[in-house]
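can u pls check wat happens w/ phosphoric acid mono(formamide)ester
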Amino acid sequence: MNRPFKSVRETGKGAAVDNIAFLADGCKEGFFIAINEGVEMKLEQRKDLLGLRDMSREEMELILDTAVPMKDIIKRDIKKVPTLRGKAMVTVFYENSTRTRTSFEIAGKYLSADTVNLAVSTSSVQKGESLRDTIKTIEVMGFDLMVIRHSMSGTPHYVARNTKMRVINAGDGANEHPTQALLDMFSIKENKGTLENLKVVIVGDILHSRVARSNIYGLSKFGCEIRVVGPATLMPPEVEKLGVKSYYSLDQALKGADVVNVLRIQRERQTTGLFPSLDEYSNLYMLSPQRLLQAKDDVLVLHPGPMNRGVEISSVLADSNTAVINEQVTNGVAVRMALLYLMMGGLKDEIAN
Ligand code: CP
């Protein structure tokens, strides 16, 4: 069979860490080329935003700083600036989404870009149109930027190589979800005043989590101590090679934590039962106010959503002031506005004014 992607082994590119990312998709053969070349480029030189692994701290700071005035726009009565007038963007989601797709769309609208969503489930994809032909069809309509989510790791990278449009990765399999991590970082900085040297716990389904990977790549560049915790069956092999500490005991991991990021159990990516039951899982790993007593008094709780209340997070905690889950969603709009603005043109002073 002619495969659209070369394997890591074939190209010789990509270290063990690449394999960790791809193992999570069950791609033991490594269907994908090494997707990040390890080159740290300046944001204005980037055509695409595919992940945080190769993004420098300075680039992330620029995005987060730009998101601050963007959040002010969202709070205004008239939430519209003309900055991206005449630009066109399309969202193409091969996987379900509430937050990411809608927030990209409204972010584009607030900046006056023309935004279109391709509804994949009712598109010609269902008639057998290939990804490559779909991309070309969209490109020749004149779009400047595509936001894409796909269940296969590496798909946004493949798209980016085959189109003149700018491409933003809105989540690819278990690989990366860079804009989620950026909004998580914005939320942490907004509440803690800094991203420097924090103790950040990521709890749950680390194996299948693109949110975990992007957070690890991003936060580690700010000197954070990152602790991942979950059952052994949901922990990638050799996860410490990503520069994190791994734990199986939630109580141990929570000791002295500044931030806890709670992950959803991704049942759609699990091919076999990786824990005995949801009850068993929640007994050991559900974050609750009682468990949080191990953390610092001013601990901040994040969840990327959607939540399984009573499984990975208690309902009481999710609705408490310790958790900033709804604020994260608002911040997601601001961060995505910042990215669209930085990638499709405009001057920072224009927004500030
Ligand atoms: N956090 C996140 O990606 O949510 P959606 O799947 O709703 O976009």
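Residues 170 and 179 are 7 Å apart (CA to CA).
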